[in-house]
Amino acid sequence: MKIAVLGTGFGAYHVELWTKITDAAQIIVWGRQEKKLKELQEKFHVEITGTMEKIWSDDEIELVDICLPNHLHKETAIKALHAGKNVLIETPLAESLEDATAILETADRCGKRAFVDLFLRFEYAYQYLYHIVRENSYGQLKELQVKRETPPWWGNLDTKHIGINLMIHDIDFVVRLMGEPERISVNGTEVREQQSLVTACLAYKDALAFVRGASAMPGTFPFSVGYEAVFESAVIRYYEDGYSDGQMKTALELFCNEKKEEIPLLQSDCYEAVLKHVFQCLQSGQTSCLDVKEAFLTLKTVLNMNQKLEL
């Protein structure tokens, strides 16, 4: 299989991961910065190009991995699909439901597949909770609190941007676990320029989910993610704190009336797992949890949250 990676920012990491998948031996990278392209060529022995048309006209390319700014997702994905390529799109799928619908409909018309990098679905701690809910191990899930807190490391994450650029994976986790919410209420505040705090409440018939996004933490604060899930007969808590000096503190814990148990965290790279999954789906034709239709529902929920926040 020949794969094209568009972008030399986060795309560079995708290139590294694709080179680990031995059957994906043919990789071509498109970018605007010649220096970065040559660095990738020298390091990973990949083909490079600064001409997008070379991607569209190459009939050997089966998948286009789009690691470009959000506003280019729709245009690039549609061009790739019309050129007969499958696509993998970095989150978010698009910036509007209209753009997302255009991608979905184009994929259907062209008979090609569109995947979205919903990487949290391949993170062990989140997979663990997903299976606990599906197996009804501890009764009904009554409340879920999910958080993602960070120092100002990731550009503009004010109240207008934090949902789609930081909270979207946690929203996706909630929607996959609990479905589309019946109601959404949101509170947020700007702390400093491009730094904000937002908490969304997603209401269901017999349960609540709270999603917190914070981009105004001090520089010494860790990049902190986690959840607390309250069931009828148990609580599951997960946290991961990653510090700028490389230190990491993490735990996955189960609390019942009769016991407290620490669940071993299996170490894996969720980004690499996503690429392997996409590769296998294209090879075997199997269905995918990264299908564009699932990402559409997540985007719909995030945009609804943003609208509520603006009111």
Number of helices: 9
Low-confidence segments: none
- Rg (C-alpha, Å): 20 Å
Q: Tell me, rounded to a whole number, the average pLDDT.
A: 96
Largest sheet: 8 strands, mixed
The coarse silhouette is: globular
Order of helices and strands: EHEHEHEHEHEHEHEEEEEEEHH
How far apart are the first and last residues' alpha carbons, in Å? 48 Å
Trace the largest sheet across and list its strands. Answer: 8-9-10-7-11-12-13-14
Strand content: 25-35%
Secondary structure: number of strands: 14
Helix content: 25-40%
Helix/strand/pairing class, anyone? Answer: alpha/beta
Give an overview of the whole structure.
By secondary structure, this protein is an alpha/beta fold. 37% of the residues lie in helices and 29% in strands. The protein has helices at 11-20, 34-44, 52-57, 73-82, 97-110, 124-135, 162-178, 270-284, 292-310; strands at 2-6, 26-30, 47-49, 61-66, 86-89, 114-116, 141-149, 183-192, 195-203, 208-214, 223-231, 235-242, 248-255, 260-262. Strand 8 and strand 9 (195-203) form a beta hairpin. The radius of gyration is 20 Å and the shape is globular. The model has no long low-confidence stretch (mean pLDDT 96).
